[in-house]
């Protein structure tokens, strides 16, 4: 098979994305602009970026594997993310913005104390590197298999490129490329879906050639208990994951933070159906896959129905979706390290220039760690096992206490450490020691339920005890005082900084418009070269071209709202 056209498509889009990162090198003047977009990012951009940050090639590999084996339950699982985002939008996202903190770690220090923050930072960094390293593996595998390239060099090269524009451009570079990645991936899937359905022989043939329970809401180890536990986990994960909190704090108000989560929820209501149908259709075309081979279901259906060029577009979308997820984590981990470790503990008097240098170097350091983890994923049992296991072990103990602290004035730092320590210890025991010592292994449902349920139960028990004893956390009073002081400081934002933030946002919106035009032009070219789906490809290109008008007009409105220092 000739992969020349696919390779060119991947290379051109990749070079374009790196170029965007370099364009934003001049916009990151301080930590607020580099890590939080000046806290004035448009909520629509933040919502799309949050969606792509949650997305990765792991969605196609892990959930695609479940969709191939069990069918509709893969969609049921992902709808828990929609419900989790709705609850986040109603109660959690506005609370995060109202704290006035740049990162979740900064809130933990302010509300629960420095000791809690230190321990949580170390666990968060470790977990983030492991999870995002694991999602780099599947996309390297996809590119390797599709283009007949060695897996290890693919992993290293893709990983190095993946972290390059984050280290250079900061949050706006990540978000702009998130939008581009969303458009490319959506275009690729909308082309893939009708071609896959045609190959399967239509709806009737598809239904006849899959198992009778293929459209059940629950199947196999993914029972109603697992779905409920996964829902609770996703409330904590979407509402409290430090990389996502950054999206809620980078907008201008609690109302905008709520809209970020609601847009994410709307996208996750629709997208799972569109994303998961191709591997489900492939089950009717080729029902012989088993074991870890089911992780290749999405790739195989792409190779079967997509002609050269469009296959490269799909691989580009998968790769970019992974880079979106990993780059968001890199930006957040780097923000925590720079803002809360280097500036908070090591060198409080550091200048903006020194902090920016540390921010970029730490992005590279943690990115290289992710590459190492990606190389080790096959030995750990594959993508599904790694991600679900790490989530079950660390999700509840790491995410639940800070979320509880957003609402509780009684939770103390000492209680937080005890609850998190008990939760982590119990989860590690059941995951690692119990199978080894007792020859006993929890089901996926119980593993997830205990992982998230035990910390919540302990938090509830402590809260009820504190209410009964009328105990108010001493850290809470200090938190309120710090919050009032920070709010007073924010009233005196320098005019030059206000103008700089507005100019950065205008620049970002213009780059988004330019990126959409570029993507539309690439699709027009592919529609002329492809052997099938040419009309569909050209039609999607037209839609993207018209969509470019939206950010361009938004940039013009933003320009009109810039207030010069003389007019203040």
TrEMBL record:
Location in the cell reads: Cell membrane
- Kindly indicate whether the keyword Transmembrane belongs to this entry: yes
What membrane topology term does the record carry? Multi-pass membrane protein
Q: Which UniProt keywords apply?
A: Cell membrane, Ion transport, Membrane, Sodium, Sodium transport, Transmembrane, Transmembrane helix, Transport
Under Gene3D superfamilies, the record lists:
Sodium/glucose cotransporter
Principal location: membrane
Residues spanning the membrane: 6-25, 45-66, 72-93, 119-137, 149-172, 179-197, 217-239, 260-277, 297-320, 361-380, 386-405, 417-437, 449-467, 507-529, 535-552
Q: What residue stretch is flagged as signal peptide?
A: none
In the record, the note on similarity to other proteins reads: Belongs to the sodium:solute symporter (SSF) (TC 2.A.21) family.
Entry protein name: Na+:solute symporter
- Organism of this sequence: Xanthocytophaga flava
């Amino acid at each position: 098979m000739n992969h020349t056209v696919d390779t060119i498509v991947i290379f051109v889009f990749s070079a374009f994305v790196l170029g965007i990162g370099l364009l934003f090198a001049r916009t990151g003047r301080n930590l607020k602009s580099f890590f939080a977009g000046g806290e004035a990012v448009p909520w629509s951009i933040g919502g799309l970026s949050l969606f792509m940050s949650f997305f990765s090639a792991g969605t196609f590999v892990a959930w695609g594997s479940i969709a191939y084996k069990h069918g509709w339950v893969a969609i049921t699982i992902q709808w828990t993310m929609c419900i989790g985002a709705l609850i986040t939008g109603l109660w959690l996202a506005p609370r995060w913005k109202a704290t006035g903190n740049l990162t979740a770690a900064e809130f933990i220090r302010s509300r629960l104390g420095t000791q809690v923050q230190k321990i949580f930072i170390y666990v968060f960094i470790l977990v983030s590197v492991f999870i995002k390293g694991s999602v780099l593996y599947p996309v390297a595998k996809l590119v390797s298999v599709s283009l007949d390239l060695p897996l290890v060099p693919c992993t290293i090269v893709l990983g190095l490129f993946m972290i390059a524009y984050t280290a250079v451009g900061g949050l706006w570079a990540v978000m702009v490329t998130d939008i581009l990645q969303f458009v490319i991936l959506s275009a690729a899937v909308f082309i893939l879906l009708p071609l896959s359905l045609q190959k399967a022989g239509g709806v009737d043939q598809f239904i006849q050639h899959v198992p009778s329970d293929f459209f059940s809401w629950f199947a196999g180890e993914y029972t109603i208990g697992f779905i409920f536990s996964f829902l609770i986990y996703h409330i904590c994960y979407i509402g409290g994951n430090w990389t996502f909190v950054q999206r809620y704090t980078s907008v201008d108000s609690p109302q905008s933070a709520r809209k970020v989560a609601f847009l994410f929820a709307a996208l996750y209501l629709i997208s799972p159906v569109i994303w998961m149908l191709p591997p489900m259709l492939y089950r009717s075309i080729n029902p012989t896959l088993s074991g870890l081979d089911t992780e290749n279901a999405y790739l195989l259906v792409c190779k079967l129905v997509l002609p050269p060029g469009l296959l490269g577009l799909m691989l580009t979308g998968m790769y970019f979706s992974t880079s979106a997820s990993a780059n968001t984590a890199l930006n957040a981990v780097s923000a925590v390290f720079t803002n809360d470790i280097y500036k908070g503990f090591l060198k409080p008097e550091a200048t903006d220039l020194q902090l920016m240098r540390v921010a970029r170097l730490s992005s590279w350091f943690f990115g290289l760690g992710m590459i190492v983890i990606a190389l080790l994923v096959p030995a750990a049992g594959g993508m599904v096992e790694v991600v679900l296991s790490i989530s079950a072990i660390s999700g509840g103990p790491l995410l639940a206490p800070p979320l509880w602290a957003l609402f509780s004035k009684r939770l103390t730092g000492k209680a937080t450490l005890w609850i998190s320590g008990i939760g982590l210890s119990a989860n590690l025991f059941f995951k690692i020691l119990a199978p080894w010592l007792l020859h006993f292994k929890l089901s996926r449902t119980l593993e997830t339920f205990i992982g998230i349920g035990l910390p919540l139960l302990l938090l509830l028990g402590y809260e009820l005890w504190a209410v009964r004893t009328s105990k108010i956390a001493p850290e809470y009073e200090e938190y309120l005082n710090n919050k009032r002081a920070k709010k007073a400081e924010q009233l005196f934002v320098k005019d030059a900084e206000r103008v700089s933030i507005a100019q950065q946002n205008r620049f970002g919106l213009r780059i988004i418009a330019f990126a959409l035009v570029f993507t539309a032009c690439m699709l027009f070219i592919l529609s002329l070269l492809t052997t099938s789906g040419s009309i569909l490809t050209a039609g999607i290109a037209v839609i993207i071209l018209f969509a470019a008008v939206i950010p361009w007009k938004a940039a013009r409105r933003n320009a009109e709202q810039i207030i010069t220092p003389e007019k203040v």
